[in-house]
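Ticket #4471: structure export looks truncated?
Reporter: QA, pipeline team
Priority: medium

Steps to reproduce: submit the single chain below to the structure queue and open the exported record.
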Amino acid sequence: MLTTSDFLQYTQWSGIATLVFAALTLLGFILKWGIRFRLVGTTGLMLVLTGGLFALSLAPLSRIVIPGAVRYSLVYDNGGTQTVITIPPQISPSQLESTLRQAASDLYSYGRFGTQGNNQLTIRARTVIHPEPGVSVPLYLGQVRRSLASREDAQMELEIYQEKFALLPKEGAGG
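Actual output as written to the record:
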């Protein structure tokens, strides 16, 4: 994964290339080259690229990986305080705990907003079971609540619904 120092290095190289294109553009206008207006466009593109790389060198690009977390999909997100993820039915309680922690880390954003005193992001984890052919039932296995105010939330509330795991199909049973 690229780090901020990598982006700073790319910014330096892109800045040098931008200066070279600017010099070529100036030379093209002095010598009345036919491609001088294309060089103006290329120089402008290099300026935008350099600015973008510089912005990426300022912001931390790090993703925390929680060991034991399984792959999940986001199925509902109101952009504020409520989200729902879906997980595979062959999950253990410890994997669910790690997955909820991973989702809490991944789904945190400074752009989320609380509503009327609710400053908590609630992430609910569900799976779909098929108790009989042609019938699908969503089964909620747990949830986590975390603060919307701070990225590092030591007061996360994690709930695992242990009684719901008995309803999950057993491995190898074609359900």
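Status: closed, not a bug. The export was complete when the record was re-opened. Leaving a note from the reviewer for reference: The mean pLDDT is 88.
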